[in-house]
């Protein structure tokens, strides 16, 4: 059964009138509530979009258009929508929340088997978006907080508010700068072009976060931001990848899988988009169907020109990018 239209009243009842005790979280475009639909006998996540946000309204329309056509076990299922008094989206409920909570905030430990299953599931979702539909879906905001986990810790990619549909032959679209710093490929800041390669870059960052248990960018006091890509690439060059493995794993992991995940993460996050793999190629390595790539011992410098049009990228954003790709290349532990 596909997504359906809900009435405002039934969603208000399901969420106890959007009560604070049912609030799961809040973002720039609205809040998400836990609800229970009695007629379906199921819990749901109800996303209430702020009408004051023009961007939020735009993302609401995009999400309904794109996610309603998706049918894959590793994408969050849209159960329905409502636009009576508010703009509301209704999703299947994810009991284990988001990946970033378990990696960075919670006290629960994701075992290695679970982590590898999550990255394989995320790769499967991206393969479906890029290659297996009538049109290519560019997600444009792949990050650990948008990877949801069901009751069995299966990965479900969500939040398609920034997504775009393009023809398979085209594979990219010029668009306004969008995404999250730390997960955005360097070319996004210059040509403002979303592509399969930029999605693959974001996937690579999440893969490294899963392996290392560290955020894509870490800021310590007055120091320059520390790039996870730079940290891992430095260890790769020294043949000491074990130095950056998540210490919370206490060395309980499959060494071949860990090496594969880290090297695939670096490969996907290569600064040169032309040297990144397709998500299919990345999956083949993760599944041990292809050999590991041989990468440069030093992290390559991204080749891009500073944009002249202020509408493309502000100076403050460029400074963050320069810190991420250049100033953060020094050694950190």
From TrEMBL:
How does the entry describe its membrane topology?
A: Single-pass type I membrane protein
> Mind telling me which PROSITE patterns this protein's record contains?
PROTEIN_KINASE_ATP (PS00107), PROTEIN_KINASE_DOM (PS50011), PROTEIN_KINASE_ST (PS00108)
Protein kinase domain residues: 18-295
Q: Which GO terms describe its molecular function?
A: ATP binding; carbohydrate binding; protein serine/threonine kinase activity
One biological process GO term for this chain?
defense response to oomycetes
Primary location group: membrane
List localization entries. Answer: Cell membrane
- Can you tell which superkingdom this protein's organism belongs to? Eukaryota
What's in the keyword line of the UniProt record? Answer: ATP-binding, Cell membrane, Glycoprotein, Kinase, Lectin, Membrane, Nucleotide-binding, Receptor, Serine/threonine-protein kinase, Signal, Transferase, Transmembrane, Transmembrane helix
Q: Where on this chain does ATP bind?
A: 48
In terms of SUPFAM superfamilies, this protein maps to: Protein kinase-like (PK-like) (SSF56112)
Matching entries from SMART domains are given as: S_TKc (SM00220)
GO CC annotations, alphabetized: plasma membrane
Q: Does the keyword Transferase apply?
A: yes
The record's family statement is:
In the N-terminal section; belongs to the leguminous lectin family.
Q: What is this protein called?
A: Protein kinase domain-containing protein
Q: Which organism is it from?
A: Dipteronia dyeriana
Q: What is the lineage of its organism?
A: Eukaryota, Viridiplantae, Streptophyta, Embryophyta, Tracheophyta
